[in-house]
């Protein structure tokens, strides 16, 4: 998401780096062959990549804005989300996929958009509900932030455990991001960059029963992975590579929206690449690269054709490299 990642007047580039890593992992394991061939790796990555994304999203979501500005932000998450969710649901009714739908109707489409999304766009649905809840609770007057946070926890609990509109674990990670922003303020203090976190991280990862985002062990993996990535960020990367990684991290929304188109198309050349490399690593690198480049190409074209105001709510969605 293109939300300002700042502390005061300075952008926190570490968060762009985190988002880049998480979005690339999301694309990689949306490749069905990779997920099926490396199920343990997929289980591990699913333990931390979207929880990490939600945690960062909770930290970044800006509630110090007017109702109209927050409404504008949520609306222009909802519109591209709804368009892509409708497209995915229609395809699920036509193709023999795992989430195949037998009877397509207007009621079913509305259900998938507003209540129970299918496919890869659930994150945006969760972000809309959590972001709206966050703003509502923190607009309550004459309450300290701790009271507002408690109110938010209750509301997210109702939406998840009571109404079934959210995964309670996903809502909890968003809440943790909010809590860090309101209490610690600086994300880097909550997740200090330490190389030695790899030791407890490896120890936890040796037992795949820990690969559950809703468990204490899973939450510990999320924490340790983020701390390790914060340390890796300060490695002396080749300068153009660093700029590319940060560019990807600043532009994750197009990748969330359009990369599934390319991961589905990857099936068309999968067999050929597997003949060249049976491990699937060549297929992985080429497919992720095409998904990233293709998603950005679609967004660039929408910017140039002046379609972005109708889809993203802004004249230009793609930031400069």
Automatic annotation (TrEMBL):
User: What are the protein's UniProt keywords?
Assistant: Membrane, Transmembrane, Transmembrane helix
Superkingdom in the source lineage: Bacteria
Q: Where do transmembrane segments lie in this chain?
A: 20-38, 44-62, 74-98, 118-137, 149-173, 216-238, 244-266, 278-302
Q: One GO molecular-function annotation for this sequence?
A: acyltransferase activity, transferring groups other than amino-acyl groups
Which Pfam families did the record assign?
Acyl_transf_3 (PF01757)
Domain Acyltransferase: from-to ranges: 13-300
Q: Any idea what this protein is called?
A: Acyltransferase 3 domain-containing protein
């Amino acid at each position: 998401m293109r939300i300002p990642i700042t502390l005061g007047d300075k952008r926190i580039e570490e968060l762009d780096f985190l988002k880049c890593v998480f979005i690339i992992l999301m694309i990689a394991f949306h490749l069905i062959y990779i997920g099926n061939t490396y199920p343990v790796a997929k289980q591990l990555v699913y333990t931390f990549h979207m929880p990490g994304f939600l945690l960062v999203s909770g930290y970044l979501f800006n509630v110090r804005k007017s109702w109209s500005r927050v409404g504008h932000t949520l609306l222009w998450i909802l519109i591209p989300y709804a368009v892509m969710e409708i497209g995915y649901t229609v395809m699920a009714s036509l193709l023999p996929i795992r989430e195949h739908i037998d009877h397509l109707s207007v009621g079913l489409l509305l259900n998938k958009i507003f209540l129970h999304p299918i496919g890869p766009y659930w994150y945006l649905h969760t972000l809309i509900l959590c972001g709206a809840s966050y703003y509502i609770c923190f607009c309550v007057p004459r309450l300290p932030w701790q009271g507002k946070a408690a109110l938010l926890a209750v509301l997210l609990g109702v939406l998840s455990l009571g109404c079934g509109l959210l995964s309670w674990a996903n809502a909890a990670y968003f809440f943790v991001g909010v809590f860090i922003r309101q209490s610690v303020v600086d994300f880097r203090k909550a997740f200090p960059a330490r190389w030695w976190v790899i030791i407890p991280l490896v120890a936890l990862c040796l037992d795949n029963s820990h690969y559950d985002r809703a468990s204490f062990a899973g939450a510990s993996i999320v924490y340790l992975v983020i701390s390790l990535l914060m340390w890796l960020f300060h490695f002396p990367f080749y300068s153009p590579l660093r700029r590319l990684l940060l560019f990807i991290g600043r532009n994750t929304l197009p990748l969330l929206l359009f990369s599934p188109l390319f991961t589905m198309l990857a099936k068309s050349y999968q067999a050929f690449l597997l003949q060249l490399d049976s491990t699937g690593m060549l297929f992985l690198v080429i497919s992720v690269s095409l998904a990233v480049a293709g998603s950005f190409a679609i967004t660039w074209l929408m910017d140039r054709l002046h379609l972005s105001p109708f889809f993203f709510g802004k004249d230009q969605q793609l930031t400069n490299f």
